[in-house]
4-diphosphocytidyl-2-C-methyl-D-erythritol kinase (Streptomyces cellostaticus), 303 residues
Amino acid sequence: MSVTVRVPAKVNVQLAVGAARPDGFHDLANVFLAVGLYDEVTVSPADELRVTCEGPDAAQVPLDGTNLAARAAVALAGRRGIEPAVHIHIAKDIPVAGGMAGGSADGAAALFACNTLWSAGASRAELLAICAELGSDVPFSLVGGAALGTGRGEQLTALEVGGTFHWVFAMAERGLSTPAVFREFDRLGEGLDIPEPVACEDLLDALAKGDPEALAGAVSNDLQPAALSLFPELADTLAVGRGAGALAALVSGSGPTTAFLTRDAESAQKAAQALSASGTCRTVRTAQGPVPGATVMGHSAAR
Ligand SMILES: C[C@](O)(CO)[C@H](O)COP(=O)(O)OP(=O)(O)OC[C@H]1O[C@@H](n2ccc(N)nc2=O)[C@H](O)[C@@H]1O
Ligand SMILES: Nc1ncnc2c1ncn2[C@@H]1O[C@H](COP(=O)(O)OP(=O)(O)OP(=O)(O)O)[C@@H](O)[C@H]1O
């Protein structure tokens, strides 16, 4: 028997970041949108916990107990007093260390898959609590759609979205470490008064209306200056996307993936071609959002 769960990447259409808290985290107003780039996580019974990974970035994915998918299996098994004896296979299409919550996605998917495989009976609320222990982005990977994340981003309120948004994503030549980007945010803000993070009403309206022009006027990412400071070449990629007609160009989360909001599928193709030809990025993908969160794709009886 095996269970396969498909799970999407995310882009942050607003990422408002407050001052560092005593625990080192930052309060956020984090507006997440799930987009149609997916990892697929398959779990099947095994003698002991084992992780394998396939995909273009597979070499950068840890296969030991630090993998978020392994940590998810261990967390659920620990709560049920059982052994996490499971083979977790990750078919990875979400860029690694790209600011699109790839590891978080695998954590949410593995948790959901193990809950099904083991008939562990964890409720939605228990799954969300385990997700929040695993990482700030993990709860959103489970629920998908669009949501406002407050606290460190793990406290979610679902958001209405009145249409489909068309995106282009440009993956960079190397990754960026999320903690390093938050540290750079702190360094750049030293001595400044950092306001409390709040969700932008115009942005929430634009999402509710499904209006790409209005959304483009409202997107923001407080981590962008920090990501650009650590990875200045990203400014060139952003400029290429803007020049190719994107309505908005921004760094996705902690970066270094850059995200381009376009009017429609045709404009997305045009911007994608210009970005591919520019030589300023590694790969270019188009995707639409919102899409649902972690979803069981199938069970197989074969071992
Ligand atoms: C940048 C985002 O991807 C935007 O969605 C998230 O805020 C990061 O979420 P994540 O990768 O799940 O982050 P976590 O695994 O919870 O934390 C990794 C590190 O990021 C920093 N971190 C993360 C979230 C947050 N609200 N404040 C932080 O300062 C901390 O240094 C933390 O040690
Ligand atoms: N299943 C996983 N897939 C990818 N990376 C993982 C996984 N589990 C742990 N990691 C570790 O997490 C690091 C960050 O990878 P990830 O792809 O999650 O970054 P990210 O998309 O920038 O995260 P976020 O957007 O949530 O900040 C990797 O360099 C790797 O060491």
In short: Residues 2-159 form a domain with the Ribosomal Protein S5; domain 2 fold (CATH 3.30.230.10).
